[in-house]
Amino acid sequence: MSVRKTLSAAVLAAALTATAFTAPALAGERTGDRHRATQKAVDALVGAGIPGALAQAQDRHGTWNGSAGVADTTTGRPRLPQDRYRVGSITKTFVATVVLQLEAEGRLDLDDTVESRLPGVVRGNGHDGRKITIRQLLNHTSGVYDFTSDPDYREKVFGSGFLEHRYDTWTPRRLLDVAMRHRPDFAPGTDWSYSNTNYVLAGMVIEKVTGRSYGKEVERRILKPLGLRATSVPGTDPTMPAPSGRAYSTLSGAPGSPVHDVTELNPSLAWAAGEMVSDSADLQRFVRALLRGALLPPRQMKEMTTTVPLGEEAPSVRYGLGIIEQKLSCGKEVWGHSGGIHGSASEVVSTRDGRHTLALNINGDWAGDTRAVLEAEFCG
Fold first, then answer.
1. CA angle 13–246–83, rounded 5-degree value
2. Catalytic center residues
3. Residue 325 per-residue DSSP state
4. pLDDT, mean of residues 261-267
């Protein structure tokens, strides 16, 4: 889920626009403190006006925790390593993993049409589920209109209407109806465009194939086997589990606009595109297990990591099936996903071998370049 049409308020918002990277640390700095550059980049996020930032890295040396600013502007409580937060579109990696597990079990095929799994669902204004495959949903080459781009939805969910409608329930069908009011962005398979609607459809496919909610399948197949006790699929519950801080937003206003506490919201507004909650340790455990082959057989892992380009504006970023590959300024490649939802921008990335991971979160959605933290951690 993203408050903008870019991939999220974290990675691709930075990757699709000009990015001012944090200067890399000198070799001597890393000898004294391997994560000093990363901490400086975290500090810079708060310096840019975000209330608080949280980062955690894990590698062969162990676990490093970094933070800056506050989790709650009223109490001044600092951000804690165990804080839980809304992870937005990182939900998509969990959803794609479940879909690929179902393919490995022979219960669906990535080249099945959406129509064959969800008859009559993708129709209207040029949308045709008979011409769209499940693979195209997962890698955003379907052309299906992104419901979060709809002006009325944006005003009610991301604009000033949020304060009145924050507890409203959005069913998957209602989200799809918003998308089907518009023309598709392009013919299926001819281009790339990030669309949260793709993952609402993917969640519906999971439910049609299994007979259970997509959230229950995520819990049964990923959260419980990996022991991800801080990770949840909240459904319509607007509250945040403890421990957690607050989330702040200008509600699509320009920097300097009034800041609102947006911690409580009905996460059905994102559903399978971005409703999940987690913490930094769980996110890293998940991406590490995924990349090391603990969740998918080799054939499905190859499918997931077969990527497509985003276009000339983001030559260093490619999208697989629910996972992002990005090349950093030093030439290193990292894999993972980012996520943006009201007052929360998150990221989890890993080297391809799973040996070096990073998770981070900021609790405001109007400023901050999180890519600079990646650059500092992996290139500094």
1. 85
2. 89
3. E
4. 98
Q: Residue 338: which residues within 8 A CB-CB, separation 6 or more?
A: 7, 8, 9, 10, 11, 12, 88, 89, 90, 324, 345, 346, 347, 370
Distance separating alpha carbons of residues 57 and 143, to the nearest angstrom: 36
Within 13 Å of residue 316, how many CA atoms lie on the same side as its CB?
18
Contacts of 262 (CB under 8 A, 6+ apart): 162, 166, 247, 248, 249, 251, 342, 343
Cis peptide leading into 243, omega within 30 of 0? yes
Q: Considering Cα of 117, then 118, then 122, then 128, what sign does the dihedral take?
A: positive
Nearest one of 302, 337, 301, 296 to 319, comparing CA atoms? 337
Please give the model's pTM, rounded to 2 decimal places: 0.93
Which token pair is 185? 């962005």
**pLDDT tens digits, one per residue of 147-177:** 999 999 999 999 999 999 999 999 999 999 9
- Measure the CA angle with vertex 345, ends 344 and 346; round to 5°: 115
